[in-house]
Amino acid sequence: EFRRVLFRSSGFPDYEKVASYATSAMAWANAAELIQGSLQGNETLLLPTTSATRAQLAAILMRFMKAYVQ
Questions:
Q1: Closest by CA position to 64, among listed 42, 36, 43, 33
Q2: Which carries the bigger pLDDT value, residue 9 or residue 63?
Q3: What is the DSSP letter of 39?
Q4: pTM to 2 decimal places
Q5: Which of 1, 19, 33, 41: CA 20 to 30 A from 27?
Q6: CA 54 to chain CA centroid, nearest Å
Q7: How far apart are CA 29 and CA 68, in angstroms?
């Protein structure tokens, strides 16, 4: 449940839609600022039930490379 607390404190209103098998990875990616959410109207959402676009995946990979690959 700690992972759920991480999401809740991150301010994503749709955190409860993250599948149970993915909560550890999503919590880590969110804490590492690799996943920053998508602006939908006036809310920033995780959108865990949708597929990531190529542009979103490229942004995530760039953040990962900058943070963890020297």
A1: 33
A2: 63
A3: E
A4: 0.78
A5: 41
A6: 15
A7: 12
Residue whose pair of structure tokens reads 């760039």 in the numeric block: 62
Residue-wise pLDDT tens digits, 10-62? 678 888 898 889 888 888 888 889 998 899 999 999 999 999 999 999 999 99
Residue 28 tokens read as 């880590």
Cβ-contact 49, 19 below 8 angstroms: no
Q: Is 55 helix (H, G, I), strand (E, B) or coil?
A: helix
What single letter denotes the amino acid at residue 4?
A: R
* End-to-end Cα separation, the chain, in angstroms: 33
The bridge status of strand 38-40 relative to strand 43-45 is antiparallel
Supply 37's token pair.
């959410």
Residue 17 corresponds to which tokens in the numbers above? 């839609």
- Phi/psi region, residue 33 (left: phi>0; alpha: psi -120 to 50; beta: rest), is left
Look-up of token digits 């804490």:
31
